[in-house]
Amino acid sequence: MKLVTAVLKPFKLEEVREALTAIGVQGLMVSEVKGYGRQSGHTEIYRGAEYVVNFVPKIRLEIACPDGEAEKIVETIAKTARTGKIGDGKIFVWDIEQAVRVRTGEQGEDAL
Questions:
Q1: What single string gives the DSSP state of each residue in the chain?
Q2: I need a surface site. Which of 19, 39, 60, 109 has the fewest CB within 10 A?
Q3: What pTM does this model have?
């Protein structure tokens, strides 16, 4: 099993969700996060005063899936979330050692 974690621009969330639903992804987790990468924040002006925003708002998606589906999920997210500009995000794929469905006690891929 794999855990696909993607960090994206917030305005891309709905488009990415629709694309994932179209390829059969049945569930995902979404978190609002803040951070920075190469863009390392930006400068804004508020009420005439300039200030630096060090942490940029992002969306983190997490999708648990069988090993065979991870590559298609990664390709779909990368294609849909890409704007071609700095700050488009990152995708990470992690191994999942175990999963348990709390309600039924199912384990492994059956719990997904």
A1: -EEEEEEE-GGGHHHHHHHHHHTT----EEEEEEE-STT--EEEEETTEEEEE-SEEEEEEEEEE-GGGHHHHHHHHHHHH--SSTT-EEEEEEE----B-TTT--BGGGG-
A2: 39
A3: 0.86
